[in-house]
Every structure is written in C-alpha cells, then in structure tokens.
Amino acid sequence: MGTVQLDVNDDRLTRQAHQALTASRAVGRPWYEPPSFEETVVDWRHEDQAEPKEIWVAEHDGEVTGLAMLYLPMEDNTWLAWCDLHVHPEHRRRGHGSALMDRVVERAKDARRTSLVTEFMVPVDEPEHGYRRFVERHGYTLSNTEVVRHLDLPVPDSQLQHLDSASRPRWAGDYRLETYVNGVPEALQPSLCEVMNQLIVDAPTGEIEYEPESMSPGRYREHLGVERQMARTRLTTVALGAAGEVVGYSDLVLPAGAPTTVFQWGTYVHREHRGRRLGMAIKVENLRRLQADHPERRRVVTGNDGTNSWMVSINEALGFHVVELSPAYQRKLD
C-alpha cells in the first residue's frame, strides 16, 4: 500500500480516481448524481495559480483505491489548506484513508500551513458517524456545521410571485435586478468581485477564521472559461445600486454530468445594502430564470451554517428542506 501524486494526464489512473470519488460520495445518498468523468478531468487538469491543488491517490495492486485532493490558496488565507478525502467503499478499513490523510498533512506542513480543514457529508441523525470518528482520530476538531437543504423543482409560480410581491416594495426604485448566463459583463466584474470576496468573511464559519478572498476580474474570467470547458451553465442574478455597481448576487450552477441537479453557490448582499429584502429578491429572480430555461432540472442543493438565520429563513420560505449535514473539521498543524 502506498500513496502517489496522481498524474492527471494518465487517463487510466484518472478514470480510476474518478470512480473512487463518485463511489465514495454515493454511499448512503440515493439522490447523489455524480459528475461526469469528462467534466471532472477538465477541473483536475486546470492549473489555478491562485489556488493550486495536489491530488494524491492510494493504490493496491495497481488499482486506485482512494484519493485526497489538497488545495493551497496562495493569494489569501495562506495559513490554511483544504483537503477532500475519499476511499472507494470496497477498499475501506484497510488503512488507505489513513495513508492519504498522513500524506496531505505532510504536504500541508511542507507548504507552511498552520491549519488543515476538511468537510464531508453525513446524515442528520448520526452524531457518531464513521467519517466523524475517522477525522477525530487524526487530530481534527469540529469547527462548524452547514445544514444541506434541497429545493424540489419546479417551485410553483404562485409561490414565487407571493415572495416577490412581499419583497419588491422594500427595494424597487433604488435597485434593479439583472440576470446573466455564464458570467456578468466585464463592466460589472470589478464590483461583483468586491462583493464575492466578502462572503467568506461575513458567513458564519465557527472556529475557522478567514480573511477576505482575492477574486479578481481576470481570475473570474478564468473560472468562467473552465466552466465552459466543463459544459457547465452558471446563472447569475445581481442587484445593482444607484451607480450601476453590484451590491448583491446569487449564483446557480448547472453541471453537465448531473442532469437534474442545480447547485446554489454564493448568495450575498453587501452589508451596506441589507434590510431591503434583496437576498430574497435575487434568489427568486434567479429561480424564475432557471425554471424558464431548464425545466429538466429537479432539485437545487444548498448549504448554510445553522446559525445563519437570515439565509436559512429565505431558503425555508422558498421551500428548501433539510437532507444532510456538512461538518467542517480543522486540524492545527505544528
């Protein structure tokens, strides 16, 4: 048994790693739709200079049994590293996960990181789940927990109209909403990036401390280019202030390999523009565009810290229901 860094240009091993990843994520989650190999390999082969990644695999008799993806931000939060570790269910409890964990801890230390964070999905009613026990044995402590919710589609037009009518008097006349497919125009990108960079600071994150991110228009366009190669679709609704600047946004992402699933990425309203029901407004508008353009999609998946009462209340009003938990664990590195 050993661990090696994955050569992402080796189609055979990369396909095996993808199979281990999707098999691991599917355990106990009948609703899970795996990403296609084609879109996954585009992501794995992309070299993001602002957040390089290393993919380490465990092997047995020439077969990939598990993998760990290590992310190392270089432009912000440079004391942190993130890892996402998976072992194929047919190869668990044989030391592969521990070998991979030891490897990413070693690599995070080599990169002079002082904290390593990992997240995973567990059932709501299993506080002693095996994934929790595994990371705790490896020195991790629970930092915060996101509640993962699903929204069944389509949401009735009457419900969206009711929520729109309740929020519109609070913002109409001072703001306008616009929706874009696969990225906002370049003129809006600087103010959008400024808003996006604040999300990680304002969202509840428990014991994990973050500084603002450093998304730039150039890096934003780079990400859009990768998404196009992955055949993903991104729907972005923005709230624009009096000067035409972005003051709030909401992103929905439609993966090509998961044909009925939509992922709710960031939703954020700048702190200076809160109290006007803009959060509800941009989410309703984005859902309307989603349902008009993509009636084949059956669910939206989102996650929020349980203490984020503002966003939780919006999601519950839209009809999101609790499905699972995503705890974040942190290990302090010597």
From TrEMBL:
InterPro entries: Acyl_CoA_acyltransferase, Bact_Acetyltransf, GNAT_dom. Keywords: Acyltransferase, Transferase. Residues 8-154 form the N-acetyltransferase domain. The keyword Acyltransferase applies. CDD domains: NAT_SF. It holds the Pfam family Acetyltransf_1. The keyword Cytoplasm does not apply. GO terms for molecular function: acyltransferase activity, transferring groups other than amino-acyl groups. PANTHER family: ACETYLTRANSFERASE, AMINOALKYLPHOSPHONATE N-ACETYLTRANSFERASE-RELATED-RELATED. This is GCN5-related N-acetyltransferase. It comes from Intrasporangium calvum (strain ATCC 23552 / DSM 43043 / JCM 3097 / NBRC 12989 / NCIMB 10167 / NRRL B-3866 / 7 KIP).
